Amino acid sequence: MEKLPGSVRIKEVGPRDGLQNEKTWVPTESKIAWINMLSNTGIKEIEYSSFVNPKMIPALSDAREVGKQIKRNPQVTYSALVPNQKGLEYALEAGVDGASVFMSASETHNRKNINKSINETFPVLKGVIEDAKNEGKYVTGYVSTVFDCPYEGRMDPEKVITVCDRLLELGVDDLSLGDTIGSAVPSQVENLLDVILKRYPQEKIIMHFHDTRGMAIANILTSIQYGITRFDSSIGGLGGCPYAPGAAGNVATNDVLYLLHGLGIETGIDEKNIQEASLYIQSKLGKVLPSRSLLANAQ
Amino acid sequence: MEKLPGSVRIKEVGPRDGLQNEKTWVPTESKIAWINMLSNTGIKEIEYSSFVNPKMIPALSDAREVGKQIKRNPQVTYSALVPNQKGLEYALEAGVDGASVFMSASETHNRKNINKSINETFPVLKGVIEDAKNEGKYVTGYVSTVFDCPYEGRMDPEKVITVCDRLLELGVDDLSLGDTIGSAVPSQVENLLDVILKRYPQEKIIMHFHDTRGMAIANILTSIQYGITRFDSSIGGLGGCPYAPGAAGNVATNDVLYLLHGLGIETGIDEKNIQEASLYIQSKLGKVLPSRSLLANAQ
Predict the structure, then answer these.
(1) For chain A, what is the radius of gyration of the CA atoms?
(2) What start and end residues bound the annotated signal peptide (chains A, B) (predicted)?
(3) Nearest 10 degrees: Cα torsion B101, B38, B24, B148
(4) Assuming Cys at both sites, which of A64, A102, B13, B69 could form a disulfide with A142, CB separation 3.0 to 4.6 Å?
């Protein structure tokens, strides 16, 4: 195929975005064992937990213990989600190489999700980003609902750009653009990337797809043909919505690797080790995870 | 997006390819009610059953009753799978607009599936195709394992061409090329279509993808960008392998429609009616079907 990159970087977000909505408690020692397995798959970036208020995300209430006890592979960058300076403090104490801040391109989604307007969010993130940079940490800015918002519908790329511009001014190192409700089709990906890649260097852009309607792999294919080389994904496709039992969540690392390796694109990640780590967390959650490749290979 | 067609034709193969491996018996009257629902979704082509020996496919042993009792919509073409002249006789008696014959591009898969070599298969199909054409019926030739064979591995497009050439010589009206084990990635689709579309008019080519590893929607996107405008799909993604419980089967009509309509491509098919017909057969089978869009919309 034309226009394919030689290699692609994957950030594994399963331990954070994947687990955060799970109702089944995964014991701290199992999380640690699992993240240690992930650290030995060849993955170079892992988001290991979230330092959001544990009342909001009880599934990740042990972020500090996890951060302190995982066995760090020097080849891997470990990051965590932080909502504010207090969260960053805990994250720094537990050990992080990177901090991820988050907000939405949609005013309504931002208010529903973090109880602030977009304009009220920037000063909070400014403090976090400054503190993290002062500690020599890498900062990623997650921007959610970049294609469609469950409240506002189709998003204008200009709204996305406004938020991205401001986050970059505040000092984030890169941006992860999220199809939060997994509704985008490849033409929407093209329309957004047309604008985004004229404005920012591609190395700064990570695409974050959910597979809610089965479009994620096609959206990733379209993204790489547009020059994107960085993606977030979640092992086994972990990460469904709590209000949609059984629905697919984040795009599965397993399926992304099947695509990329099939296209001859290098990732440095071992599919067999990913399969093993998928089966491990699947057994801890006691349910079948949505990744198609996981299921096909488990037979 | 560039190079997208204005419209695409979908053949619904759920009642045949979808049901054939199901262990749960769907009562004849439920099959009939379901096919009648499908007939009113805007779908123009339905493969309603198989006239293969009922001992081989017990799930479809009521093909004759189904064919005789469904309420035909004059806008819809009804076809059935036929293995030989005896099967065709039954199909004609039950009523068909089209007959589908089948064989494999792989010698080993052909032997395992129909107990004959590729060369021994042609004379059998010759008789079926002649008889069907004499009765004024439309004939489709299914060619399976066009990308990868579970026994022979990667298939050379030349082997596929050899079988396609011969089937067209024998008089089939069109060819459905199957990713039988759902293993292809988009670069394989391009490599095959490079050869196929130089040799045959695109109207004669139908692509038949399985979503076993989550690649089907990306493969369909690649196919339409290559000029293909005809696809087989199965409602709800029905059609898993009997030896892989829970594994995804045929690409889901629901997901294909979400892609195509999202890209602004017309199909004439109503997604809500498809959702309803999916929920109907899901309730008869007593299990959650693999279509991502079905699940997302069912919440």
Answers:
(1) 18
(2) none
(3) 40
(4) A102
**Which residues of chain A does B212 touch, with a Cβ-Cβ cutoff of 8 Å?**
292, 296
* B241 classed as catalytic: yes
Contacts of A215 in chain B (CB under 8 A): 217, 255, 258-259, 262
Alpha helical stretches, state H, chain B: 28-38, 63-69, 85-94, 107-114, 118-134, 157-170, 186-199, 216-225, 253-262, 271-285, 292-297
* Alpha carbon separation from B206 to A175, A190, A206, B11, B197 (Å, rounded): 40, 26, 35, 9, 11
DSSP 3-state of B195? helix
Concatenating the DSSP letter of every residue in B23-79 gives SSPPPHHHHHHHHHHHTTTT--EEEEEE-S-TTT-GGGTTHHHHHHHS---TT-EEE
Could you tell me which residues are beta bridge partners of residue B174? B140
Nearest by Cα to B121 from A193, B112, A230: B112
Query: In chain A, which residues have their Cβ closer than 8 Å to the Cβ of B288?
Result: 246
Which domains, and CATH codes, for chain A? 9-297 (3.20.20.70)
Q: How far is the C-alpha of B181 from the C-alpha of B144, rounded, in Å? A: 9
- Among B189, B209, B211, B221, the residue to mutate for chain A (most A Cβ within 10 A): B221
Q: ipTM of this predicted complex?
A: 0.96
The helix (H) or strand (E) run that includes residue B99 is strand B98-104
Chain A from 183 to 242: CB within 8 A of any B CB: 185-188, 190, 211-215, 217-218, 220-222
Average pLDDT on B115-120 reads: 96
Is the pLDDT score of B120 beyond 90? Answer: yes
B182 confidence band (pLDDT: 50, 70, 90): very high
Interchain contact A257–B (C-beta under 8 A): no
The rounded distance, in Å, linking the Cα atoms of A66 and B268 is: 52
Query: Among residues A190, A45, A163, A38, which one has the least CA distance to residue A101?
Result: A163
SS3 at position A176 = strand
Query: For residues A39 and A265, what is the distance between their CA atoms, to the nearest angstrom?
Result: 21
A49-63, B99-113, B238-252, B283-297: least confident range: B238-252
Q: pLDDT tens for residues A230-239?
A: 999 999 999 9
Quote the mean pLDDT of chain B. Answer: 95
User: Of residues B4, B124, B221, B241, which has the active-site annotation?
Assistant: B241
Which band of pLDDT confidence, cut at 50, 70 and 90, is reported for residue B245? low
**Nearest-CA distance from B244 to chain A in Å?**
6
Average pLDDT, chain A: 95
Instruction: Tell me what pLDDT residue B3 has.
Output: 84
